[in-house]
Each structure stands twice: as structure tokens, then as C-alpha cells.
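Researcher: First entry.
Model:
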Amino acid sequence: MANLKVNGKPVSVEADESTPLLWVLREQLGLTGTKYGCGIAACGACTIHIDGAAVRACVYPLGALSGEEEITTIEGLSADGSHPVQQAWVELDVPQCGYCQPGMIMAVAGMLNSNPNPTDEDIDLEITNICRCGTFTRVRKGVHLAKTKKA
């Protein structure tokens, strides 16, 4: 049994400590906004926050958590879509198919937590999520718009 804090709420889950956090979130907690993409932390579709930092949940084992960390999924980023990154994504119509976008939004929000004024170079270095539709130009514009918005 593991006790976690997910999206501001305490939860208890029963899983082997080697279970990737992605599967705990999706299968046990029903938080399906966090997507499975590659399973090897390459694509970023599974990006969540642990204590505000972007983490790829597909390779993060449940046993690596103490229970004190704050885990945030796309469902917990904001209750009403008012997070600056979500606002920018809507305003600029960033996603195309949308499958990778929860992870992309979480990666961008995590980057802005630690670097509130990223340059294009920072964005290119830090946002390594893969978008098969190729919306990278709109993602970069979205990052620049999001950093001008208030949380």
C-alpha cells in the first residue's frame, strides 16, 4: 500500500513498488489525461509534475516516492483550464490531434515553474516532447504567450 498526494488529495494505492507511476495514475486512479506513448521516457506524453518539476511517469517507479511529494497531473493543473499554459494553448490553437498535448502542457508548465522567461534556445533544450503532428512552432509561440499571462 502506498499513500500519495495526487492533485492536492491524499490517495492510497496498492501496487508493486516497481510499477511505473503512469499505470498507477491511469489504471488505479482513473487519471487518463496522462498518456502512454513510448514507455521509455522518450516522447513525453506521460509528463506529470512531482513537486512542480516535469517528470516522465512511464519510467518513474512507485517505490521512488516517499508519499510526501505533490504529484500533479493534467487534471490537477487547474480546475477550469485557467492555467496560463492552457489559456495560451486555447488562444493559439496549439494542438492538432491533441494526443501528446497533456504531456506537452505539463512539460511547458514545469519549465515555466523553474524558468519563467525562457528563450527559444531554452524551449528547444527543455521541451523534448515529441509531437507527431509537428506543432512545435505553435508550441514555442504558446510558451512565449503563456509566460505573459498571470496564474
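Researcher: Second entry.
Model:
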Amino acid sequence: MTQDDVGDRLLVFKTPYLLGSSPEIGDIVIIDSRVNRTRTLKDDIFESPLIAMVMDADHVEEVNWVKRVVGMPGDEIEVKDGQLYRNGQPVEESYIKEKMNSDFEAVTVPEDTIFVLGDNRNHSSDSRVIGPVPIENVLGKVVLRFYPFNRMNVF
């Protein structure tokens, strides 16, 4: 098994969001992609890392996505000619892998939601697919990528 066969390993802080803080533009967050349902206490218990190891961990990884916050409530987000725009202004994104190969019509981010995109835009399921993400579906903020070692990074 090579480093390419294993996904990134991340250190995530949940505490700020549990205490009422909101994500900010540029944050890399873990979201529950099931945006059309309300999260419950049962979700929090059975999807905790310790419980997930004992139970169906693959299911948790399928619904928990790592994405970057690009829009806050009230922002207008669109992609034209492969360029992301927030409120009509182009967004500088040195972290994306390649220019986006598809456009996205303007959408205004509703209250109590955020708009997220993956950094690998041409191969990412994100708010372009599932729509704006309710704040309650933001599970934590990524603060460190510690594996693979050649991509270690503090956020």
C-alpha cells in the first residue's frame, strides 16, 4: 500500500462549533453531506471516531466530507469561465488543483447555511451538488493535515 492508496489524515477541532462559533471564509471543515435531514444526538454519538471504529466506519466516511468554506449567509456565489466569484468579485484561490471546467449559476447563500467547495473542483461533490450546507451540519474545523508526510500542513 502506498501513500496514494490512503486518504489524508487530519486533526479536526469540533469544540469551536459546539460552543457556537461559525465557520469563516477559507476554513476547511468537515460537513455531514446529508443536508436534507436534521442531525440528531444519535448521529453525534454513532459517528464519533471511537464508536465509528467499532461500527460501520465506511458509512461515516461516505457522509462526512472535507470541504472549504467559500460562501457565508447572504453571499452570492457563482462560477463563470472557471473562475469563482463571491458577490461579483473574483476569488483568488491558489490552493485549487486546476481551473474549474464547468460553470455554476449564481446562488445566494441562505441564512444559517454556508457554501462549500472541494479544492479538487473538477472531481468534487460539494455545494454545487447538495446545495448550501446548514451550519448544524458543520462538524468541525480542520487544523492540521499530518499524513501523508510530504503534504503535512497547518490550517
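Model: Note on the second entry: Residues 57-63 form the longest helix (7 residues).
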